[in-house]
Amino acid sequence: MKPTLFTVFVHAHLYIFFIFKNNFFFLVEKVLDIQRCDLNIKSNSSSHHTELYGEERLIVRRGQPFSIVLHLSPSKLDGCIYVSAGPLPRRESDTKVTFSLQESTVDTEWSASASKDASGGTITVSISSSPKAPIGEYTLTLDQLGQKTSLGKFTLLFNAWCPQDAVYMQSEEKRKEYVLAQHGLVYRGNFKRIKEKPWNFGQFEPGILDICLKILDDSPKFVPDADKDISSRNNPVYVTRVLSAMINSNDDRGVLVGEWADFSGGNHPSLWMGSGEILRQWAESGPVRYGQCWVFAAVACTVSRALGIPCRVVTNFGSAHDTDANLVIERLYDENGDRISGDDSIWNFHVWVDSWMTRPDLGTEFDGWQTSDPTPQETSEGVFCCGPASLHAVKEGEVAMKYDTPFIFAEVRFLDLVRLSNGKFVKFSESTKSVGNFISTKAERHDITHQYKYPEGSKEERQVYEKAQKRNKLLQTGEKPGLHLKIKLAKNMIVGSNFEVYAVLTNNFLDARTCNLLFFARAISYNGKLGDSCGFSSENLEVPSGEERRLSLKLEYNRYGTAIDPDMMIQVSAITIDKQTIDFHKAEKIIVLDEPDVGIKLLGEARVNQPVTAQLTLLNSLPEPLLNCSFAIEGIGLTDGKPIKLLLLEVPHQPIRQEAKASIDFKPTITGSSVLLVNFDSDKLKNIKSFIDVVVKE
C-alpha cells in the first residue's frame, strides 16, 4: 500500500508529521533550517532492546521514549503533535490523536518534549508513544510551508519491558527467553521418549521484521477495512489471531502449505532448520511447501517475537483432535479389538504456541499465557485459525471464553470405547491416561465390633482373612485389584536394528483369569495416522491369581524399515479381551526409534569474516547402503541467512557400517555466541539433526 499524505495548516506554522501507518504533526513557530536529523539509532536501540535488529534503521518499542536530534537554526521549538493512523485516519476509531508539546513526556499516552543544547545548534526531541498504540512502520517528514524534508523512518513494536503494555512480563529472564532468544528446541516424539530438535527462530535476521509486517498487511482483514485493521494492531490478542490464520495458507496466501502425505513439489517439513528461509521464500514467491505442526508453530513464534509479543513453542504429547465439538475424543473398537471409528484422532505429539498478554476482553484472571494454533485443523469463525485461548480458561474448563477454548480443552482429554454386539459401549481400562501428558467419627459409646469383623473362628472370618492376605500382598507391591496390562520396550532401539518388545499381563484378581491377548505393531505418523503392519502376535492365556504372563513381539528391520516414515515411529498395541465378563483392557506405546548421531567438529576457532571448516560425520546404522546423501548447515550470523548444502556419494554398509563424512566451510559475519545447526538427509535416513554452540571472535 502506498503512503497517504495528510497535511494540516494551523496559522501557517511549521509542522512535522508522519505518514503511512501513523502520522505525527509537530507545530512550531518558525521555519527551521534543518541541516540534518540524527535518529540516535544506536542509543535508542540499546534502551529499547532492539539492537539485535542492527543499526540500519530505527526500531523502538511502544510506551517508552526515544529521542531524535535536529541540527538546525533557530532553536526554538513550540507547538502541538497530531497523530494519525492509516490511509483514512479518524478520531472516532482512535486512529487520529492530537497532543501538545510538553516539558516532559508521559508514559500513558502519546507525548513529546524538546530541549536544546548549550550552543543552541541542536534540539533534542523526545517522543513517547502510547503503550496502546498500533504497532507498525512510521515515516517522519518535516514540512515547512510545503517544503518537505524527510527525517527518516522507524518501526514501533510491542514492549514486554513496559508495565503499561498488554504484553508486559515482569521477569527479565523470561523476556530474554521469550522475546530475545533466536535459538531454541522443538520437542517431538512421545512423552516416554522425548526428542529435542534445534530450531533457528532468527527474528532479528536482516529483512525478517519487514516480512512479519508484510504478513499483517497481506491478511484478508486488511483489505476491506484498512483503518479498522491498523487500529486493531494495538491489541496483541487481535494480532495473534491474525497470525494464527496467516501462518497457514488455507484461506489466503499465508506462509505455509500443510501436507501430511505427498511432499512432491516442495520440502519435507522435517528438512527445515529455521524460520528465516521459510519467511524469505514466502515474501518472494508466496506460500511455501510444506509445513507440519512444529514448523507452523516455530514460524509463528518467530513472527510473534519479531513484533515484540513474548512467545514460546509448546508440545503436547498425546494430543487429541476433536472433530465433532463434544469435548471428548472418541475412538471406537469392536469386540475383537479392531478400530471401527472415524474422525477423532490422537496425535503422538502436536505443537502450538503460547503468547503472553493481558485479556481485558475476558477479565484479569485470564491474563498470562494464551494458546494459539496456526496448524490448519478446524475452522474458527469460518477461517482456519485457533486461539488465542487463555490457559487458565482451558485448565478450569471455562469453554465459553474466546477464542476456541473448547477445541484446545479437548486436545488434552480423551476416551477409548468398545462397542459390543448388543450396541452398548464399555470403556477400555485407564484409556484416558494416554492424552495430555507432560505439557511435564459418635460421642455415645456402644459395641460395634460386628461392623468391623465376622465372629472369631467362623468360616466367613477365615475367608476374609485369606482374601485380606492376598490383597495386602497386592498393596505391598502398589498394585490395584484387577487385570493390568502394560508394554515393556527394549533398551536400545536404534533404527536398523532388530529388537523384541513384550506385553505383560498381571492378574490381581483373587482367582485365575483366562483371556485372549492380541499384540500388534504398526507404523504411525506423528499426527496419529496409522501405516502398514510391522508385526503381530496373539495367544489365549490363563493367568493365575497374583501372577503375570508375557507375550513377545519381534520387530525386524526388514519388515518395519519399509513401513515407517521419516518420523521413525512404531505404535505397539496390546489388547486383552474377556467376552464372558465383558472386560477389555488396552495398553499402547509409541516407539520412537533412535537416530544415529551426527558428529560436528570445528577445525580451528571461528573468527568474524574468516572462513572456518565444520567437519561432519554420521554412522550408517542400517544394514543397507544410503543413497542421495547430503549435509546442510545453517546458523544465525554464520551462513549468511541460508543453509549451505553439500551432496555426497553413496554411504555403504559393508563390510562394517560406514560413516558419511563431509567438510563444509562457512564465514561468520557477526561476533558473539550463535548456534550451528546441521542436517543429514538421504533416501532412507531422513533429516537427522544436531547442533553445536559457536562463539565467534574478532
TrEMBL record:
Lineage of origin: Eukaryota, Metazoa, Chordata, Craniata, Vertebrata
Domain Transglutaminase-like residue range list: 285-376
Annotated GO CC locations: chromosome; cytosol; mitochondrion; nucleus; plasma membrane
PANTHER family for this protein: PROTEIN-GLUTAMINE GAMMA-GLUTAMYLTRANSFERASE (PTHR11590), PROTEIN-GLUTAMINE GAMMA-GLUTAMYLTRANSFERASE 2 (PTHR11590:SF6)
Cofactor dependence: Ca(2+)
Family affiliation: Belongs to the transglutaminase superfamily. Transglutaminase family.
Keywords: Acyltransferase, Calcium, Cell membrane, Chromosome, Cytoplasm, Extracellular matrix, GTP-binding, Hydrolase, Membrane, Metal-binding, Mitochondrion, Nucleotide-binding, Nucleus, Protease, Secreted, Transferase
Primary localisation category: membrane
Annotated InterPro entries: Ig-like_fold (IPR013783), Ig_E-set (IPR014756), Papain-like_cys_pep_sf (IPR038765), Transglutaminase (IPR050779), Transglutaminase-like (IPR002931), Transglutaminase-like_sf (IPR036985), Transglutaminase_animal (IPR023608), Transglutaminase_AS (IPR013808)
Name of the protein: Protein-glutamine gamma-glutamyltransferase 2
Acyltransferase is among the record's keywords: yes
Localization in the cell: Cell membrane; Chromosome; Cytoplasm, Cytosol; Mitochondrion
Reaction catalysis annotation: L-glutaminyl-[protein] + (R)-noradrenaline = 5-(R)-noradrenalinyl-L-glutamyl-[protein] + NH4(+); L-glutaminyl-[protein] + serotonin = 5-serotonyl-L-glutamyl-[protein] + NH4(+); L-glutaminyl-[protein] + L-lysyl-[protein] = [protein]-L-lysyl-N(6)-5-L-glutamyl-[protein] + NH4(+); L-glutaminyl-[protein] + H2O = L-glutamyl-[protein] + NH4(+)
SMART domains: TGc
